[in-house]
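Long-time lurker. I teach an intro course on protein structure, and each term I like to show students one example going from raw sequence to a predicted 3D structure in token notation. This year I'd like something fresh instead of my usual example. Would anyone be willing to generate the tokens for the chain below so I can use it in lecture? Attribution to the forum is fine with me.
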Amino acid sequence: MRVGLVPLEVQPRLSGNLVRMITWANRVADEGAQLVVFPEACLTGLVNDNEPEHDLPLGLPVPGPATDVLGRVARGRGIHIAFGLLERDEDLLFDTAVLLDDRGEVVLRYRRITGGWHGPLADPAVYGQGYDLPVAETSLGRFACLLCGDLFDDEVADGARDLAVDWLLFPLWRCVDDNALAARLWAEKEEGVYAERVARVGCTTLMVNALADATMSGGSFGGAWVRAPDGSPQAELQIGEVGALLADVGTG
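-- Reply from a regular --
Happy to contribute to a lecture. Here you go:
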């Protein structure tokens, strides 16, 4: 399978982020990608501040206008598209990821199980968590998804392992104020930690982090990685680099 992992340059305007997603989806499709993966919360950024009056308007329905627009791209180009967004379901907000198949249909909707995307005092009547690990059966294989901190929860990671899927989608929003510092921390410490967690799940993992400046709730340092089931690297786009990681990947 040929994948395109895009550490999208997320900016404050949803409409601009959506246009950039469409542009990148077409670019990597031109390069033969069958699957395009974008980061966590990439339509708005993970800019929620634990105030419902501010945060609920950031949420989008699933399915809804954004999945419809990107679904048309997926259908027109014959590709699968995965991305994260803040999802609104009536008066509840979720940190969600979706997978659209090559017909443009939502075949997976995953709501983040761990609560690290919001503050510990956020109102649980507004800020929701998921509870299950759905699987999508597609022409490219079986997919599951985790979001950011989910990978570091043993119960969640073990549940993902038990699914025995072909591919794990792993969009994230990971920030350090300085990209040079982020790169050093990644090389010295974090890369090994993430590799260990991927190995716990035991599945080929497609990781992509948003790229955003510090005005977006501290920013996000980008980067994209394909990790083998044992956690070892298969392909990488460097932290802070604008572009897309194109890679031919397998499940073993």
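Some talking points for your students: The helical segments are 14-30, 52-55, 65-77, 154-162, 179-201. The radius of gyration is 16 Å.
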